[in-house]
Amino acid sequence: MDFERSDTQRALLDALGTLLNRHAGPQRCRELTERGAYDHELETELRAAGFLDVFGEAGAGPLEATLAVEQISAELGAITPVPHLLVLPALGLPAPEGPVVLADREGPGPVRYGSEARQILVVGADRCGVAELSPDDAEPVPSAYGYPLARVVARRPDDLAPGTSQTMMNWWRVGACAEALGMMQSAFDLTVQYAKDRTVFGRALGSFQALQHRLSEVSVLLEGVRWLTYEAAFRGATAESSAVAASHTMATLHRLTRETHQITGAVGLTREHDLHLWTLRLQAIRAELGGLRAHQRAVVTSRWEVTAA
Amino acid sequence: MEFALSEADTAFRSDLVGFLDRELADGWNRSEHGLGSAVYTDFSRDFVHTLAAKGWLTPHWPPEYGGGGQGAWQHFVLGEEMWKRGEPRGPQYMNVNWVGPSVIKYGTEEQKKELLPPITRGEVFWCQGFSEPEAGTDLAALRTRADRDGEDYVLNGQKIWTSYANEADYCFLLARTGSVSDGRNGISVFLLPLRTPGVEVRRIDGFVGEHSFNELFLTDVRVPGNCLLGEENKGWDIVRRTLAYERVGAPRYARAALVLDGLADWCRAAGLLTDPGVQEQFGNARALCEAARVLVYRVIDERAKAKEPSPMAYQARAAMVQAERAVGDLALDVMGSEALAEQSPGDAQFRNSLGAGIAAGSYEVQLNLISRLILKLPKE
User: Fold this and answer.
1) From B140's CA, which of A146, B31, B324, B343 has a CA 20 to 30 Å away?
2) What is the least distance, in Å, from the CA of B374 to any CA of chain A?
3) What is the pTM of this model?
4) How far apart are alpha carbons A196 and B226 in whole angstroms?
């Protein structure tokens, strides 16, 4: 057991940090959002630097890929890191250029970067399906939630091997956790700093015990998310570990969203303040895979071997 | 990062599980009783002898004091497997986890010789005399006095909420040797034999499981100077270290998870486990138990690396409280009035969970410490 990053992990994340400094962050995110664009440049850089191959790499692996997804998300990288770094490699599929859409059995609702996506992966009863997409397959959906959304129609997906649906769901869950973790940590750090800097009634906002307790509780939840996510990745995204991590992550996301905005007050509701960049995107992750309640039910079906409700 | 035990630790867990499966083959699961109940305490008296014979009562102690010199992870695995089964060691976990280690670290050779062997053999019970009527969460406000009289100390005062005092042979007791204005700097630790004249134990009737609280009245209790542990007036440092052990020493999430499994069995039999709403509450509670587990593991990792205890233990402790409460709430929510029956799968858990955020430093104190030491928020 070792909760410290290894030298390899530190080196990998340092290199990724340097790359993201140039190709991600709040400012770039704002520019891309205005154009409703996917960051092809960032994807190209990540591909060239080998970050899309980390999952299957000797000396690295799924945990390192998960750490990378977290960091890309913390820095608001405008790509689809979960399919590219986790789900496709877990299924043994190459990562195509451009966004990839993940869809659950109910079919995709509005999905991130749907208009630009060239590939869709669909969870089936047992086999996962993969299909190419064309721009005609997408119908844009106006939305305030950070990502350009569209409804897409998957045309006759090719079925993959038996059991691939579960693999896809499990890694999607771990990926959603890693994305949410990175974004939540950024939103939380911003809020804690605000609580230190902002003066009210002649003293720092963060000196009020009522608020300190709420922030402390969020920090406890967030640390739980962190280590459950890493552990699930380390264990190869078993059904139970990934459902447990996703359940805790989405419950934390609910609480963190409320608390960060309550503490930041009205300025946190403006586009001038950065908090919304993470808040709005987090809600898109919250909605995936059936959301909190579906993750919680998945914990029960995997742990106590109960038929899905 | 690595989230698997070493081969040696895994082999130890496997040996231990096999041993416990055999020793507790009669379906030992006393989780329906409260910790501290007579059922627990009586069973533990014999069980710890068996454990001691295997060298598994104090495996983490240094060999020169009757231990096995095992590392932090084996020590922790032992505790986790015990709590997973409802903690058949009863009150002994205090002795082995922090009373003994404190004596090893701060005691004189004479104290070690006298006090440690009975612990390693499982022959004694200890209790913890910290809280007082006017000093609970605010422990440094304690007023019980220990005054020097020649070679002796004379103790006067009152302790309260002292679990196991009715059964214990010794008390790990805090008393003020300096003045009240010295605050934390005027406190000392005494290793008090409870059969000393002037010690009176009175039971307080509580409803938290079958757990009994006690009051401890000390009236002109004369003890020899060798009952002092460490230096006079330096007791707070010992306690700080002691509490660092206690905060995560009892992996309560493992017991909460055990109760949750029992509740799942009950719900399955009642045809409720396929209900989506019930499933969601189970998923939530299980996730909180698992989150507490990984946060405790993180603290054990620090301990295994011989680092100074960090404030991460406060997060782990708070997470355990959240887990225990979630399972307690679930018990009453899903079982309905069946949960009210004594020793139903959820009864003791609910009542225990009311005390989860109170013992070993209140939940709010953990949150205060997190905000100050981890988030570095300004003082009030």
Assistant:
1) B324
2) 9
3) 0.94
4) 49
